[in-house]
Design goal:
Radius of gyration: 39 Å
Helix content: 25-40%
Order of helices and strands: HHEEHEEEHHE
Number of helices: 5
Strand order of the largest sheet: 1-2-3-4-5-6
Shape: rod-shaped
Structural class: alpha+beta
Length: 238
């Protein structure tokens, strides 16, 4: 009986040693088995040339040298109102006045500065700034400057990139004091000189304005708005 048990124990020991040896030799790689791992396959897309890539929305892209130079000509201004309007694309409309701006570059520079600062502070892609002569003439078509900024370079439609960051125009010279006085009185009192058909009786209105300003009737003329467009070089400024 004891001999049989000893044989069993011996068999178990031999099997255990055999298992250990098999595990040792199969788990220990030889130097011949050291081969580079097969690299994982990745879906690599071709990198587009820089000139073919659509630019990211970046406020600095809309700041070419010419625009930056004009902004340095900005004068003190007052914001009359600002509101988000939805025309062809959501746009922040800003109406300002600037009694010290005098001439084409100052008109443009003031409106440009407002457009950029509003785009940053309000975090909007499109800003439209109107520089009005005064509060009486707001919305009457006598803007000293009309400036639109599209920080995404998508222009008015806002759908596709076309490189249009700015659209701007301004009066070459300011209106004369007499022109502004005539226009102010005209729009303040035109509702008082309507005929039976609801049309303005211009002769009577002109006589009233002439008397108020102590000028002849023929000198009572509404000013003409003639803004000059700005052609913009879109090279970024330093």
């Amino acid at each position: 009986m004891q001999d049989k048990r000893a044989v069993q124990v011996g068999i178990i020991v031999i099997l255990t040693i055999a298992v250990v040896l098999v595990l040792y030799f199969t788990s220990t790689p030889s130097k011949d088995n050291f081969r580079p791992a097969t690299p994982k396959t990745t879906n690599i897309q071709a990198v587009q040339p820089i000139e073919q890539r659509p630019p990211a929305i970046d406020i600095n892209r809309s700041w070419p040298t010419q625009i930056a130079a004009l902004a340095r000509r900005a004068m003190f201004y007052t914001v009359i109102k600002s509101q988000l309007v939805h025309e062809r694309r959501p746009t922040l409309l800003v109406v300002i006045t600037s009694p010290y701006a005098n001439g084409y570059e100052q008109f443009l520079g003031t409106a440009i500065k407002v457009a950029r600062s509003m785009a940053i502070s309000r975090n909007v892609a499109a800003v439209h700034v109107l520089l009005e002569p005064n509060e009486v003439l707001i919305g009457k078509g006598y803007q000293l400057a009309d400036v639109a900024l599209y920080t995404d370079g998508k222009g008015e439609d806002g759908q596709t990139f076309n490189g249009v960051y700015w659209q701007a125009s301004a009066m070459q010279n300011p209106y004369s004091p007499q022109q502004l006085q005539v226009a102010n009185l005209w729009f303040q009192h035109q509702s008082e000189y309507l005929d039976s058909h609801g049309k303005i009786n211009e002769s009577e209105l002109k006589s009233y304005i002439a008397e108020q300003l102590n000028i002849p009737d023929f000198a009572v003329k509404l000013p003409q708005s003639n803004r000059l467009p700005l052609t913009i070089d879109n090279q970024p400024s330093d």
